[in-house]
Specification:
heterodimer, A: about 230 residues, mainly alpha, Fumarate Reductase Cytochrome B subunit, 13 helices, about 80% helix, globular, B: about 625 residues, Formate dehydrogenase/DMSO reductase fold, Cytochrome C3, 2 domains, 28 helices, about 55% helix, about 5% strand, elongated, disordered C terminus
Amino acid sequence: MESLLSFARGPLFRLCFMIMLLGLARLLFLDLWEAYRAYRKAGDKKMPWRLIVRRSLEWAVPVKRVSRNPQLYYIVSILFHIGLIVVPVFLFAHINLWKSSIGISWPALPFQWALWLTISTIVFAAVLLIERLSVKAIHLLSRGQDYFWLILLLFPFVTGFVCANIRISAGLYEFLMAVHVLSGDLIFLLIPFTKIAHCVLAPFSQVIDALAWKFPPATDQDILETLDRFK
Amino acid sequence: MSRVQNTKLILWLLTGFAAAVALNRYVFGLGVTTNLSDKTPWGFWIGFDVMAGVALAAGGFVTTAIFYIMKREEFHPLVKPAVLTAFLGYLAVVAGLLVDLGLPWNIWHMIIYWNPHSPLFEVGWCVMLYTTVLLLEFSPVPLEKSSRYAKIRDFLMKFRFPLVLLGIMLSTLHQSSLGTLFLIMRYRLYPLWYSHILPIEFFISAVALGLMMVAFESLASHWLYRREPETSLVSRLCAAAAWVLVIYFVAKMTDIIASGKLGLIFNGKWQSDLFIVEVLVSTIIPAALFFVPKYRGNTRVQWIGSSMVVVGMVLNRIDVGGLAMLDSTASYTPSWMEIAISFGVVSAAVLVFLFAIENFHIWEIRPEDPESLTYTPPSFDYSSRTWLGVPSMASLTKHTLAFVLSFAVGMALMSGKRLHAEGIDQITVRPATAADSLCDTLCINGNRDDQFVDFSHAGHISRIGKDSCWVCHHLSLPGEKLSSCWECHTSMYREADFFKHDWHASSAGANLKCDDCHTPGVTRTAQSAKKCTACHPAYKFASDEKDVAQEYDIPSYVDAMHKLCVSCHTVEARQMKDKPNLAQCPTCHRVGTPPDLRADMKWDVRLPHFDNLILPDVRRNGK
């Protein structure tokens, strides 16, 4: 168990973390490159830049949208995201690992805050999962990975919470820690290949959406042909 | 077209892997990346990246010489690819060198701080100048993509001929000066490779290799893009290469026979086997193949012959650059990280080459865009049904993914521990020994290894004068009349703390208050404090080293001794007409100096042997 843990924390972590970092960079590069090509190809280049920028900012700070259309799903989702990002990055134990391995560190979250943020993240994830299953409109839009991610994200949070706050036997602790680290590695590994890639792509989704409607000349023929193929 | 795409995929994988290793090298240093050591400072990187890289780039100047100087118009299709290969080859050399250099950020020093005595100075300048010339020679090709740059392009085209001439000149210098470099390693390099005509051998072999590299590159790229090979042109290159190889072989063997080393080829040591293999592969077999007209017109034989020359000559450069030195250096096998970086650099260069072939006017007929040949249906975002366009970046997507994955694997393979090289060992200096209690002749051997210096103490006193102690000694440690070197320069290779600030301040030591030395109200620094002589009036300094005592750090034993002896010997050597070599290493370092070099020194003082050594501490203990 110990060797598995050190493998998951060492080589496997570096592998998955690097795949995440470079994979996201690659996705961003490919998307922007393709967007640039689409823009160059577009016959009508009147892009509503102002609108695009405004919408992008609105989505980045989602307060306005939520206040206009207050739904439980929006609010829970935003709160879930806060815990999801803040806890792993600013947890004292995680910062310590960074410090002891490559010598960089940053201010840590107070323990009580980390505790409550963890609990809130677990609770909100559960609420989101129930919503996806019960609300018909959301259920219809959901794909397999939407459920998969909610469940996968619960693993490191629950195991981390138990290991940090509940007195358990050493064997159980090691087992839960292994689950914690391995599920974390899996998350890193899958991020650039699934919908979580929105963490870098979201700021540009408005541009790409707008560009997607700029058809190059004689596209209609291609589309018809392709649609024929899909039948 | 999958042949190109698959090749590119492999190259991207290698490049990504090497990028991770390179990151490791820059973060943690050479010590953890390579198996190099102080005793074997040049390894696979020098042999393969630099020596072989430069030689492989020789195609550029050979082809331009054939086309522009000899006016052989039919070789026109080979010029642009050859110049591009040379340019990328030199860029690869620079990239490889920046990984290999201990302090790569100091590379610009060579431009400002000139050391015209150093062969590497000449090598460095040649690389810089020739890379610039190649850039100027090649840049009209990418510039013709847009009419915006037409003026710059026309301007460069005007200087094409002078640039070509300059390129040939610099190459001639540089290819041979890499050989010159090894003339200073006479006692490191195995005699079969060492030769007084090493520069000439390097130049001739570079010409042969250049021809064959152009042939190989033409064959390989045409195979990759599934085009008709340029068989007739390549066969002419092969015919020329055969003659150059013969000249090379004759020069090499004549030199070996003339210097009486023929026996070394057949003495059964591993070096002689290596030499035989190298000469067979690089010279004899390909030359024999290419002399038969029927064979050299055959594409398959062209493949075999040109790759043999390429592999053989690369082996030759690796041999000279390190492999044939292994007997006189510490044992060394390149680490997998060294090999990964070398292959990565080459892969990146090939990728750029393929990119240039596909995007610029390098060939008379440009290869078609590999992706335009296969129809890929337009793709839709399946949630919004938005049309995303034709996925014309299929290969880019695949190749970047390959890069990312292999980079991550490279990172995973690095050791996760906090790594650092050990640096220089702390070796405490031991005093010089003498055969007699008067210390007439000292055996200076600070680290007690087999390399010692016989120092005629009495002889120096009689030459310089009786009251001249201060010329060499700092007089002295407080409370003493004179101190030996090792008493302050306590570390063999590291700087030492001379002043012992804390000892002066502690109650167990000198028990001084801060204000005893530092002026109150002034920032307490070494410079603003009292001079040592204020308390220790007997303390004197050798020559002009007065302010050194104000710094706490004093040089290592080795540095201090070298500075002391060499600076004085240099002055003396200029004055004494009969001893021009006085300031050179073997004057003092006699042990291990080969007899013939010792004879070169023109004089030989027989020194007593130190069989029964007595420590010269008589002075202190006797008191």
